[in-house]
Specification:
about 475 residues; alpha+beta; about 25% strand; binds glycyl-adenosine-5'-phosphate
Length: about 475
Amino acid sequence: MTDSNRFQAIISHSKEYGFIFPSSEIYDGLGAVYDYGQWGSELKKNIRDHWWKSMTQMHENIVGIDAAIFMHPTTWKASGHVENFSDPMIDNKDSNKRYRVDHLIEAKAEEMASENREDEAHALIHDMEQLLAKDDFDGLKKLIINQNIQCPIGKSANWTDIRQFNLMFSTQMGSVTDDADTIYLRPETAQGIFVNFLNVQKTGRMKIPFGIAQTGKAFRNEIVARQFIFRMREFEQMEMQFFVRPGTQMEWYEYWKAERMKWHLSLGVQAGRYRFHDHVKLAHYADAACDIEYDFPIGFKEVEGIHSRTDYDLRRHQEFSKKKLQYFDTEINQNYIPYVVETSIGLDRTVMMILSETFLEEDLSTDEKNDSRVVLKLPPMLAPIKLAILPLTKKDGLPDIARSIMNDCKSFFRCFYEEKDTIGKRYRRMDAIGTPFCVTVDHQSKEDNTVTIRYRDTMLQERIPIDTIKNLVSQSIIS
Ligand code: GAP
């Protein structure tokens, strides 16, 4: 299967089996916005819980917060987002209409594809992406002119130069629609941590070095948003800001690089599918930065960023708020603005990474018959359902035994009870959503209190006593 077919197969599978749906699909969806279904939301929650535990429970000096999505508008001036967080756009001089450059070019590519000029359409999108990646606005304008792209309304090709367009979504707070009421949907969760730095440090009696972690929604009006949940307009981040003494940031940067890679490997992903990508061109506030990239079916792409952000954010918030954001270090008897090492991972991208890593179409054909299965080989701790309990028939008291196993286990981990269809079909449905263990209750269970357990990955089956099920599953899901 080619990578692009594999990517399409993962998207279709996610929809067919209740993981991820296009948002408001009955109205034909909303660009780059997705909803998580019954199993996708469980998978996402399990990843989020694993991250939260590894940050807060496993590090004595890291605590978590849950800051609001809306923040005082000055936050985004201080952080630099009002000024710098932007993408290219272009105006038509005749119609006075403004367009996002990618939308115009994509519409042209769609027109080409509808005229059976698929190769040209692909080449156009490819060229656009290359130019966008380089911020080459002159090149993008040339592309628009050379392709004779016209204003969809006025049909003229009389374009202005390309200018930047801010990626933040804004809205109005209160009833008066003047400028003072414009607030933004946060484009990153990090600023909620920075503005609470002193609140947490003082109330938690935290001593440097310490970290503040947070998970939550972030919003960006993304310009290129065509890669499923890789680039969304509403997405979720899991971020941690680690506050350190100035001068020690490089040690901590290296520490967090190693620590985060350990976490990634704990997800059961093969080491060879990850790589570090060091940033050559650093943001003005950073003195070191890298990405952890994963080898998606769409190529190696960023899942997480690790940034040494100096004291830039706290210093800017101190300046804009006129409130001191300093720490008195009793070990060296000095007041200073701490430096920060940030780890920032996209939860949706992690979901996409886990689906890419574990989605398999296995050929099970034998000489006698053709057979195959689709399976998600999820690590048990991440699987939406840990245990499926399947009575062989609906009669002879088998459902009663199965229900009693369910009652015994359901407060410890997520179980699923099912009576309908043949056992083979039920196993396949559980494979497709990544359930690691199925137990079948049959007539022998009535005789000797045992069940058949079937292991998803090997498909091996064995008999085990009913009273060992809970422990076996519980042991497998400890993170
Ligand atoms: N506070 C730092 C920060 O926000 P970033 O590299 O812009 O850094 C961090 O974002 C992570 O958030 C990325 O590595 C990615 O996993 C995720 N992310 C960013 N934009 C995203 C988008 N539009 N859709 C999904 N995930 C996104």
